[in-house]
Amino acid sequence: MAETLIRLGEKRFYDDKAFPRGFAKSGNFTILEDELLMYYGDTLSGLETGRLEPMNQEEKHFLKALKDPKKANTKLETTWLKYIKHSRTRKCFYTFNSKKISTNHSAFEQELAYAYED
């Protein structure tokens, strides 16, 4: 795991609401990112919500990176920003079929209707 001076979380971090099968199985995170979120997520969540106060310069920089994502320069900061993006934004769903309501009848339908009129 990457060296960081941000303290480990008091407990493992899981987000069962947004990622019910875990971070790695969601397809959005690598195994390394999964481990970073599990071990440091509790601390990062606490810093973000204000439950925890920053204890060192790296934790203060993390709070600055939350306000301006361009300042994120560690894997932990970019992973947390990625977590925020995937957990708090709406997911797009695409369908492969659609039902188009047509007001004009096709030529085939007109011929079929004409054939049954007799």
Summarize this entry quickly:
With 118 residues, this protein is mainly alpha-helical.
Describe the structure in your own words.
This protein has one domain (1-95). It is 47% helix and 0% strand. It has 4 helices and no strands. Helix 1 (31-49) packs across helix 3. Belongs to the MaoP family. InterPro entries: DUF413.
Uncertain segments are none
* Chain-averaged pLDDT: 84
Total count of helical runs of at least 4 residues = 4
List SSEs in N-to-C order. HHHH
Shape: elongated
Helical proportion, percent range: 40-55%
N-to-C CA distance: 80 Å
- Profile the largest sheet: none
Question: How is the secondary structure organized here?
Answer:
Layout: H1 31-49, H2 57-67, H3 75-88, H4 107-117
Helix pairs in contact: 1-3
Which properties best describe this structure?
118 residues; 4 helices; Macrodomain Ori protein; DUF413
